[in-house]
């Protein structure tokens, strides 16, 4: 079955011709704020917001220009310049897929910029914070707008850099510095896959441009290898198993960062990569697509389980992000039938998860930056707006009927049950767990008795923070229905990602849908019994083996430590020792032996010419030997 | 005959004489004259380079004078694209190094007044720098192989004194080690140069006339070996690399920049021009073992770098890793990889230069090269920390910065190379890509321990960058970002010269890359 995607047309003029401005505005913002430094302290945040809004305006105009074209003409390439002569032409691809992302990034991004004015108002480095946010938006837009893999990769690592800088924004805290480095290094493991994937694409097809690759109908070993390598890259960026471990630590960053980068946009880049490459390397029913779906299903469960045991509100939400991206990955592994739901869930998740994170930030803002939910309780009356918006986000994420998450998540589940029944039913189970941990979070934070310290004075946040919350919660309310009913998003995306043979119709009473609702209800009821009706202890109880397992992130860190970190440290020490003692030292020792001298000559700092002469000679002999052995003189 | 290159080579050495002859006590004047001379050379080179025609003759600005007529030795100079960008790299770095070394011979004091290096002759230091500049231009511009050899060896002398007299505590150990390694390599090369002259029998040392002169495969291999080992020591390639960390750690930061940024490039430049073009059959026969050594350098250098406790040694080991990439690109027998390698030589000069100099500024404040003696610099000197971070990111080849383009080209060109049935080179490229992960570890771990965390007590009095330090680092950062986003101007100059090299080696380069074997 061939997934038809539209040809890409070269485009000049109009707003689309100027779409590079989307990237340029925030890039200039970041440049000005970083280079002119403290001279911009007074108005830096305003510039940051203005640049993000300008970018959003361009995206909106470009969107309307794009829908003015006929469906088959909605893939427009804008050539920018020759990057690597003969290999890479830098250009932007404005099509339904990329413009959807651009709207999400600049729209939600701008709201988070505005929110940050309030959230970071007491931070002496607020200007630098906005510089990094602008840098992030620019890089993220390059990632989704580039018309080739190299441009995508530049954006890909650019968002990694912004993420590194923002996780470590409070770098004077050692934990933040460590978390930032960990995120970058783990991401680089994924980048290794993406890099080698690009080598293979270039070697096989002679191009790295999306427009020059041909859709495939059946898989061959090469495309399978490419697909798996790209999937490794996607796992790094999107915190999917086995490269998930950095995301929970990334919560060290300021909360708006968690909302923008580690929930709404950057972490979904892996889903973008898979969907963008779908027609070329992940055809429906292929091994590569199945691998994507399996990774998604495994991660959605793992993230949900982790979410159940966290008392830190941000880490709970981080587990939930992992889990929700797992749903998107599962959808992206189902071919064109799943793409629209994966992207749809990505968009609605962008709204409701940003809403939830910013809501958590608003709670923290009023609670002296306390993150432990055991020290919250009964906050709904003191923070009514935060509570109301958070509650809407909560209903959306658990898939409460008619809210955003209901439509998009259910779409993924139904498609999965249809194509990959086992994975589909695992996703149903995951939804039940989501019902539990999200209810637990709401009950612990907003209901029950107050458990906070005497010096905390919970209060509602200023309107610069609550208005973005309200707008986001509107998206959490209605966006899902708008996108999914009558297949609006699916038909819009079809020219870019292909469409399934049969258009799905949304059933309100399908078996998997009803099963999901029932499990969610059970999960929520269970949470009510444990955390709503019953008293929540303000000290963490010891918990069962399973709780510990979840609290420790399913031992992911422990595994990495024993498999990679410790052996790596030993290898490093050994190599350093060998380099200091081995190559130079053997020679020094030999020199001492030959010279008949005593042991004290064996020290490295001899300064004796013959030592070095011999060491050079041995090195050269090794070189010659190697050449002779292999080169057949 | 074009007077450009002889003029470029004459100006610094004349400047050096003027500086040396200045009356006693005119240290400041000596520095100013040096800076002025090096800036003049930069401007002259810029004007010359503007007249370079990428699609013109291979060697341009050619000049030839008889030197030792009885042996056919000529003072022959001229540049092709690769040589031109390396000359440009040298003349860009010298004024930056002059500014960076402004107080290096004055006797370096830390913030709390401890003397790290005692006061030494300022005039000598700066005239040595200018002499070195002449030799750097000469070695890349020489078209006569004997002249190349002379510069190759003579360069050691100013560098030996710069390390041995102006370096850190173990400077004499490091300087002697550096000199002996290099002399040994030079000796082998001298034998090979004479061998080439005798066997070719054409009574000339001019490179263009010697291309294709040696046909006997066995003879090619022996002569190749002589050149290659000399260049491998210079580059340096594992396992003859151990002189570099000592030399780079003991040299003053400015000298270390020229040592690692330019002098070592003579090794990889020599491989590209002489090993490949004079002995193409040998080069092809040795491709696999050399690429294996290069991959060992890449991974080994990166792993050992992770374990370093001294910033300058760490940077030296990262360079060993990066030189591995350059050597791999040179020998991958693919135009993409080779253009990437030539570009890498330039980009590495900027990136490592910036990193050494930023580290040097940290060391000048703290008086210690040890990473463990720092912590929390970001808080007290955010601008310096920012420069250090950007230089570090260039060192880990962050996309968007110049080193990424070259590293990507080397790896993708090697991966797709059709030489040797491609299997070995494909594997080499995949293994080398692991360095992408290791690079993040060695750079970011250093950044974490120096810039981040709570501010260490001795770090608290740090002042942020002064105007001189900004003038040193800002141009390098601008070049790193500029060529990271727009590498085309450099590649347009490099590509034709690489095509010529591969044509002489007999590798088909009809298409820019080895395109489309699959579909």
TrEMBL record, chain B:
Tagged with keyword Amino-acid biosynthesis: no
A GO cellular component entry from the record: membrane
Residue intervals of the NADH:quinone oxidoreductase/Mrp antiporter transmembrane domain: 142-418
A GO BP entry: ATP synthesis coupled electron transport
Single GO term (MF): NADH dehydrogenase activity
Residues annotated as transmembrane: 6-22, 34-52, 81-102, 122-140, 146-166, 178-202, 222-241, 253-274, 286-307, 314-336, 342-363, 383-405, 425-447, 468-486
Enzyme class: oxidoreductase
Membrane topology: Multi-pass membrane protein
Localization, UniProt: Endomembrane system; Membrane
Signal sequence segment: none
Tagged with keyword Metal-binding: no
Keywords: Membrane, Oxidoreductase, Transmembrane, Transmembrane helix
EC number: 1.6.5.11
Family of this protein: Belongs to the complex I subunit 4 family.
Record-linked PANTHER family: NADH-UBIQUINONE OXIDOREDUCTASE CHAIN 4
The protein's name: NADH-quinone oxidoreductase subunit M
